[in-house]
Hints:
- By secondary structure, the chain is an alpha+beta fold.
- The chain is built from seven helices and 13 strands.
- The protein has helices at 15-30, 81-86, 166-174, 184-200, 207-211, 214-220, 227-240; strands spanning 42-43, 53-54, 61-68, 76-80, 95-102, 107-114, 124-126, 141-144, 155-159, 162-163, 204-206, 244-248, 251-254.
- A seven-stranded mixed beta sheet has the order 1-2-3-5-6-9-10. The chain has a three-stranded antiparallel beta sheet with strand order 4-8-7. The protein has a three-stranded antiparallel beta sheet with strand order 11-13-12.
- A hairpin with a 2-residue loop joins strand 9 and strand 10 (162-163).
- The mean pLDDT is 89.
Amino acid sequence: xxxxxxxSQTPYDSGSQQARVWTEGWVAREMFCINCGSPRLxxxxxxxPVADFVCPVCAxxxxxxxxxxxxxxxxxxxxxxxxxxxxxTSATNPHLLVLNYDREAREVRNACIVPKHxxxxxxxxxxxxxxxxxxxxxxRGSNIxxxxxxxxxxxxxxxxxIAEPRDAVLAKWKSTLFLKRASIEARGWLIEVMKSVDAIGxxxxxxxxxxxxxxxxxxxxxxNNNVRPKIRQQLQVLRDNGxxxxxxxxxxxxxxxxx
Length: 259
């Protein structure tokens, strides 16, 4: 989808600042709220401390990050690490909207939303602190490791220049809203089991297939000596919330957000 702006229409000489104007203009024109379906998002004032856009109907907030190139990649640069970690449990923590644009073609190629309920400490990476000679010596930025988010938590609105069906986008969003009710710790376990299910690579699988990721889960949660019972518990939660269907005999089917 075309960005709809020419260089002469921006007040900036910097390529990154021009791109911010173009991509934010695209969001204002093209994005709808995937929480309530409102046809437009409203842009917040520049330098708002948390978010860039808000839904005028349901008040959900969105932070926009734009990347130049052919794909979204696996990492998105973000602001201060300590502030990002502190915001994980805040009601004002925004959803992340990542855009991938082609500068020469003036096109947005991909638009992907990571819901805030997929944000856990494991996907926030601290960048090295600034050197003592820097103006903000010691300041640490952060990276958001979107490659560590399960497939269900990467909701494409636009993929390779083609808009995804609106109903499918809204359905995928609704399929994981149960995570909002979970604590950060409980959410972390659920997300890791969801990633294990993704890695199996097929919609129907057996309990033993998930057990194959026991060592990985043990390394993430070294203090837990009962990983297999924890896996079964998480699969039950995912089943009870409609994410999985239990077929009997230790067999499951992925109902939403599949590979």
